[in-house]
Design goal:
alpha+beta, two-stranded antiparallel sheet, 8 strands, globular
C-alpha cells in the first residue's frame, strides 16, 4: 500500500463530506486529491506496493482506495515527472487483484502506518506492505470515510448516528457522540 499525505486539501473536503448536499462533489475531489501528482515511484516499487492508496490527515487514515492503475504525468513545472493513480472505492467483491477489499476499510480512522510524517519524507508518500490480517470493518466504506472526516474537523450540522472513537497517533482519543448523549469514561 502507498500512504499519501492529503493534509493540505483534506480539511475543506472533510467539511463538505459531512453535508449530504455536497458529499458527492467532495468525494470526487477527495478521489482526485488522493490520486494526486506524487513524486515518481519506481516500476519495481509500484508493482510491489501499489495495491491500495491510503490518504491521511493529522496522522489519521481518512480514506482508502484500491489502485486500478497509474500513469506518469508532469508536475506543475511542466517538466518533473510525477505519478498519478487511477483509484476506485474498495467496496467491491474480493478478487485476486484486491484480496483484502472486504477488510481494508478497517484501516480508515486508525493512526497512519509508519507513524507521523518525518520532515522531507518523500514529499508526502510512504510505501508499506499491506497487512495480511485486518479486522472486519464495523461500517461501510462511505461510513468510515465520514467518521474519519468527523474526527478531523468535528461534527458539522450533522450529528453522528452512532458513536465513533478514533485514537490519534499521539494517543489522544476522539469520541464523537450525538449532542446530549451521556458519556461514561472508565480507566483501568
Amino acid at each position: 500500500m502507498i500512504v499519501v499525505n492529503t493534509g493540505r486539501s483534506y480539511p475543506s473536503i472533510a467539511r463538505r463530506l459531512l453535508d449530504a448536499a455536497t458529499r458527492e462533489d467532495a468525494l470526487a475531489e477527495l478521489t482526485k486529491e488522493t490520486s494526486g501528482r506524487w513524486p515518481m515511484i519506481s516500476a519495481e516499487n509500484l508493482a510491489r506496493f501499489a495495491d491500495y492508496v491510503l490518504g491521511t490527515c493529522d496522522g489519521i487514515v481518512t480514506v482508502i482506495y484500491a489502485v486500478d492503475g497509474w500513469e506518469t504525468v508532469t508536475g506543475s513545472d511542466g517538466k518533473t515527472p510525477k505519478i498519478q493513480f487511477d483509484l476506485v472505492s474498495p467496496s467491491m467483491p474480493v478478487s485476486p487483484r484486491w484480496p483484502r477489499a472486504d477488510t481494508i476499510t478497517s484501516l480508515i480512522g486508525t493512526p497512519q502506518p509508519g507513524g507521523p510524517w518525518k520532515r522531507g519524507e518523500a514529499r508526502g508518500t510512504r510505501m508499506m506492505t499491506t497487512p495480511a490480517e485486518l479486522d472486519v470493518p464495523r461500517t461501510t466504506w462511505m461510513g468510515a470515510v465520514c467518521d474519519a472526516a468527523r474526527a478531523v474537523v468535528g461534527p458539522i450540522d450533522e450529528a453522528p448516528r452512532v458513536p465513533t472513537m478514533i485514537v490519534r497517533p499521539d494517543g489522544t482519543v476522539v469520541v464523537t457522540v450525538q449532542a446530549g448523549t451521556p458519556v461514561l469514561v472508565q480507566t483501568a
